[in-house]
Amino acid sequence: MNPPVATPFFFYLLAGIMMIGGILVITRKNAVHSALALITTLLAQAGIYLMLYAPFVAGVQIILYAGGIMVLFLFVIMLINLERTMKERQFNKQWLVGIIAAAALGGLFIAVFTKGSTLFPEGRSLYVEADNTQRVAALLFDRTTGTYMFSFEIASLLLLVAIIGAVVMAKKRI
Amino acid sequence: MHEFIDYILKYLKSDQTPGAAGNVFWAAVYILIVFGGLSVAVIAMNWLERKILAHMQVRLGPMRVGPHGLLQPIADAIKLLLKEDIMPAEADGFVFWMAPLIVVLSAFTVFVVVPFGPTHAITDMNIGILFMLGVSSLSVLGVVMAGWASNSHYPLIGALRSSAQMVSYEVAMGLAVVSVILMTSLNPGEQGVGTLSMIGIVQAQLKQGTWFIFKFFPLGLIGFFIFAVSMVAETNRAPFDLPEAESELTAGFHTEYSGFRWSLFFLAEYSAMIAVSSIAVTLWLGGWLRPFPNLLNGATWDLAFSLVPGLTFLLFAAICFFNTARMPKHPLFRVQTMGLAAFGVVLGLIGLAMFVPPVRDRVGDIFWFSAKVAGFMYLYIWYRGTFPRYRFDQLMKVGWKILLPMGLALLILTATAGFLEEPVKEWLHRL
After folding, report:
1. Is the pLDDT score of B4 beyond 50?
2. Number of compact structural domains in chain B
3. Residue B303, domain member (yes or no)
4. Average pLDDT over residues B221-229
5. DSSP 3-state assignment of A73?
6. Quick check: is B182 in a domain?
7. pLDDT value at position B54?
8. CB A125 within 8 A of CB A135
């Protein structure tokens, strides 16, 4: 059969791209550059999904995040005045809270990394790449195995509420 | 060395795509063939567009470079390569440099999953159509980046204009595609399991015995119509060519680009046209299937249809020879006459090669796929020659207020029709 793609080399490559992209997002002064770095991160993340044999999730990630949401981000960024924001000093008044949160998250990661094998159930079978889409659909819509239908619909309702809220706030007269 | 040759030969006996067989060598060969074929198609398209458009407007079109202007695209390519490469002084260098690359890469990468035949695809992905839509939606990013990085007002406004257009039509396009994916789950015998794979979609049409454009008439036709309109808008072509609009607006996002970088945008536009046409052909027009594969089956019909590719090329060669005979007999035209005759000979030899049985069996599916795509290419030129350009508010109105509700209704109706198909058949059977 085919040689497996999920080699450590690809993982470290993609994870490295994600880390560099993530650091660039918060360090660039130019907001457009930050957005582009975020796109790179999201694309590398799609690659990680592919490595986990979840091509459907990877495809949706590219369409929704890289192709849809980030384009709207760029739209908004381009409409604001970049020259003035470029001159401003970058600052963050919540640095203390930030450090505490980062330390907590780091501690959590280390804890999971050291005793991860006891935290997670073992032996959960990986879905085969060839019918990933069908499995996802079965998890959502199948009469017997469809356990996530309700949460899926609730999430879409949440998005609808957000859209209506945005319209109400933007339009003075409806 | 011996193992390597074995590795190469082993694939020839398999009936899989190189991607599925995991054969790197043949995958590379297929990629090169597709890339080369695509470049030739873009060059041919460039010439054909000028010629056909000219003939529609009762002009001659390019006539000077080569016989009937056949070498004009090559002359243009050389001109573009030799032009000075200008970058505006205040431009954002890196983003300015990246933008055309992203557009070209996304336009070419989608061809990884285009099925030219059951085995003639670089690879077959489980998420084929999703991959095509996703990667081609990345080209919007390149457009936005190009407009912003130029650091000039016209490109920025142009980029906002064209990306708004591309994003809005993607929605209607997606809905039309989803209705086809619903249809793939209705194969007789294995109901309820659809597919996103491009090869799987064509095979579903073979199993169901109909092109999806005729499925649930007129639902398939409406879906095809929605896709056919939004794919023109998606590729920024007339009558939706607001990004360029050379006669009334300053050219859009690529105003500041020149020379080779500009030609990359041009290349990407044509390659994207071919890509979306191949999506339309795969989803609605039966992909690589020849006409009536179920109705006119059997060895005789197979043989008859396998002769069509060769005959087509012989017809092209005959046209060339006919025009060679019509060339002016002046000595100044001697080189051109010889060139045209040589072109005819090349086409004729290709046609003859297609009659050889091993070649004949292998090129049939590629030929039918390319012929269908070529039909779409002609439609693109025809639109450009006939339709007046939409105003921007009209364009938005068509996208959001007509195509999107139509797509939603189509989705619901297709799902209902698919759900009712079996019970109605049973009921009719009982009568």
Report:
1. yes
2. 1
3. yes
4. 94
5. helix
6. yes
7. 94
8. no
CA distance B23 to chain A (A): 8
Distance from C-alpha of B320 to C-alpha of B264, rounded to nearest angstrom: 31
* Residue B347: inside a domain: no
Closest C-alpha among B213, B205, B199, B173 to residue B186 = B205
Q: What whole-number distance in Å separates Cα of residue A30 and Cα of residue B151? A: 13
Residue B24: inside a domain: yes
ipTM: 0.84
Distance CA B215, CA B205 (A): 9
SS3 A76: helix
Q: Determine the Cα–Cα distance for residues B385 and A8; give it in Å rounded to an integer.
A: 54
Residue range of the domain that includes B35:
2-307+355-430
Chain B residue nearest residue A74, CA to CA: B144
Q: Is the pLDDT of residue B78 over 70?
A: yes
**Which pLDDT belongs to residue A1?**
43
Instruction: Answer for the pair A72, A25: CB distance below 8 angstroms, yes or no.
Output: no
Highest mean pLDDT among B3-7, B63-67, B111-115: B111-115
Say yes or no for a CB contact (<8 Å) between B137 and A63.
yes
How confident is the model over B129-151, as a mean pLDDT?
89
Q: Can you give the pLDDT at residue A100?
A: 95
Domains of chain A by start residue, with CATH: 1-86 (1.20.120.1200), 130-174 (no CATH)
Q: At which residue do the structure tokens 């999201």 appear? A: A42
**Pick from B250, B252, B261, B254: nearest CA to B83:** B261
Partner residue opposite B141 with nearest CB, options A1, A71, A129: A71
Q: Could you tell me if B226 and B407 are in contact, meaning their C-beta atoms sit under 8 angstroms apart? A: yes
Residues of A in contact with B163 (CB under 8 A): 71, 75
Length of chain A counted residue by residue: 174
* Collapsed DSSP state (helix, strand, coil) of residue A81: coil
**Is the CB of B134 less than 8 angstroms away from the CB of A63?**
yes
Test B126 with A58 for CB contact under 8 angstroms. Answer: no
pLDDT tens, position by position, B226-277: 999 999 999 888 888 887 777 777 777 888 888 889 899 989 999 999 999 9
pLDDT digit string, tens, across residues B155-198: 888 888 888 888 889 989 999 999 999 999 888 877 778 888 89
Q: How far is CA A46 from the centre of its chain?
A: 9
Distance between B86 CA and the closest CA of chain A, angstroms:
22
